[in-house]
Design a protein that fits this description.
2% helix; 15-stranded parallel sheet; 1 helix; mainly beta; five-stranded parallel sheet
Length: 353
């Protein structure tokens, strides 16, 4: 542990100061405000505490400010003075109170990460009208209220998960044509149906809407709307109908979780096109199907969770020698399976009942 003081802080000509992953403690020294030519300041993963000195905001040329993973308190309300800022990370500190609307004055900001704090109140609507913003990460806070409409389509990464947001997903989200990550999980009160318009997000890679109150039918297009989609998590909602039935060849899906809904019917045979699938969880639904011998055609599977459904019959199931070569989680409890248990499954020692 060490204090960062004016005697051991970088010289006044520094353009980049990276002191991350050290043991510095105490307050961030105000002398850093004398570094007039500083463009990048990275103090992440230390033990800095207290409030952020107002002197730091005299460094008007600063483009990148990363103070994440410390113990800082009090939101820096003068942050808008850093008019040239491109990236701001205050993640994993002890910030409390509301997010100030002044942040929206940083018109050139590309990335804003305020995750893992104790921020409360509503998300300022002005954050949704920042023309250059590509990443907006507000997860793991105490934020509540509706999600405001997005006015620009520059956003690529949205993570509002683990908050207290409610209402529906604003239709403007589906117009964010460059969006790659949409994570809204564990807000509990996000509701309404999932619009099929979501399938217009052709570049989406991660879609996580789990642990909310979404209802209605799952859009069938979710199986093949984006070749780059590798995470689809809709678990623990009130969704009904069938599992999305069309999975196109060449898809990149690795994680599929629709656990804890009200899905019925069969598991679609086209799931064999998900050759990269590593995690499959369809448990706690009402799926009425025979044992899925085509699972052996998914060579990357590491976890299969099908418990608490209406699966029945192992009759005439033949599994090849390649089945379960990577499988280490296999849950089939609370079904209506009968017949002869395939030897290959017994040999895996993975069957959970």
């Amino acid at each position: 542990m060490a204090l960062l003081t004016s005697h051991n802080s970088p010289g006044c000509t520094s353009q980049t100061t990276d002191l991350s992953n050290n043991g510095f403690n105490g307050q961030i020294p105000s002398s850093l405000g004398n570094l007039k030519k500083l463009y990048f300041l990275i103090l992440s993963s230390n033990n800095f505490s207290g409030k952020i000195s107002d002197d730091l905001f005299k460094v008007t040329h600063l483009e990148w400010l990363d103070l994440s993973n410390n113990r800082l308190k009090g939101f820096p309300y003068q942050i808008n003075k850093l008019s040239g800022l491109n990236a701001l990370s205050l993640s994993n500190n002890q910030l409390i109170g509301c997010i100030p609307s002044q942040i929206s004055r940083l018109s050139g900001l590309n990335s804003l990460d305020l995750s893992y704090n104790l921020l409360s109140g509503t998300i300022p609507s002005s954050l949704f009208s920042m023309p250059s913003l590509q990443a907006l990460l507000l997860h793991n806070n105490l934020l509540y209220g509706h999600i405001s409409p997005f006015l620009y389509n520059s956003l690529q990464y949205i993570d509002f998960s683990h908050n207290r947001l409610y209402g529906q997903i604003p239709p403007s989200v589906f117009k964010l044509e460059n969006l790659r990550t949409l994570m809204l999980s564990s807000n509990d009160k996000l509701t309404r149906s999932i619009s099929s318009v979501i399938c217009k997000l052709k570049f989406l890679e991660i879609l996580d809407l789990s642990n909310n109150g979404f209802s209605g039918f799952i859009p069938q297009c979710l199986g093949n709307f984006s070749d780059g989609l590798f995470v689809l998590h809709l678990g623990v909602n009130n969704l009904q109908g069938n599992v999305p039935s069309i999975y196109s060849e060449g898809n990149n899906l690795r994680y599929l979780n629709i656990n804890g809904n009200k899905l019925k019917g069969l598991i679609p045979p086209s799931i064999i096109n998900c050759v990269n699938l590593e995690f499959l969880d369809l448990g706690n639904n009402m799926i009425d199907d025979t044992f899925l011998s085509f699972l052996e055609m998914l060579p990357e599977l590491e976890a299969v969770i099908l418990r608490s459904n209406k699966l029945h019959s192992f009759f005439k199931v033949q599994l090849s020698s390649t089945f379960s070569s990577k499988l280490h989680i296999f849950y089939l409890s609370n079904n209506s399976l009968s017949g002869t248990l395939p030897t290959k499954i017994i040999n895996t020692q993975l069957l959970k009942t």
